[in-house]
């Protein structure tokens, strides 16, 4: 069953990614305590399986927190999900688009940025539709199928 595998809160721009077991989503804002609030990029998502594929491709072993996304999903694909609504526990987020990898990914592992460009390897960004609590282990599913 697809689930929320990890949550990270970024305290400041370019700051550390703090792992947490639960967090609060605020509709129209993002994650409580996260540096990025509002706008269309309220929460960022990555796939656990896709990260593992990327590490194998570039011969690396960087932790998934190095991607600097907020939520890691297990068992669900993000590719071509623009406009779709994803339920995470009792909350929903709407995917606005693909998160493009930046030059910081090559600081993690040389060649990682280029490897991430295919098949939504950088993950997705979304707006938060519902205020509520989420926790590692919560079920995730697309609402539209």
Please write out the topology.
Blueprint: E1 3-10, E2 17-20, E3 22-26, E4 30-31, E5 43-47, H1 48-58, E6 71-74, E7 85-88, E8 91-98, H2 104-108, H3 112-116, E9 124-128, E10 132-135, E11 140-142
Parallel strand pairs: 5-6
Antiparallel strand pairs: 1-2, 1-6, 3-4, 3-10, 5-9, 7-8, 7-11, 8-9
Beta-strand segment tally: 11
Shape: globular
Please report the distance between the alpha carbons of the first and last residues: 15 Å
Strand order of the largest sheet: 2-1-6-5-9-8-7-11
**Would you list the SSEs in sequence order as H and E?**
EEEEEHEEEHHEEE
Helix content: 10-25%
Number of helices: 3
How is this structure best described in words?
The chain is of the alpha+beta class. Helices cover 14% and strands 36% of the residues. It contains 3 helices and 11 strands, in the order E-E-E-E-E-H-E-E-E-H-H-E-E-E. The strands form 2 sheets. An 8-stranded mixed beta sheet has the order 2-1-6-5-9-8-7-11. It is globular. The chain starts with a strand and ends with a strand. 36% of the residues are buried. The mean pLDDT is 92.
Compose a concise summary of this entry:
With 145 residues, this protein is α+β, with helices and mostly antiparallel strands. It has helices at 48-58, 104-108, 112-116; strands spanning 3-10, 17-20, 22-26, 30-31, 43-47, 71-74, 85-88, 91-98, 124-128, 132-135, 140-142.
Task: Give keywords.
145 residues, eight-stranded mixed beta sheet, three-stranded antiparallel beta sheet, 11 strands, 36% strand
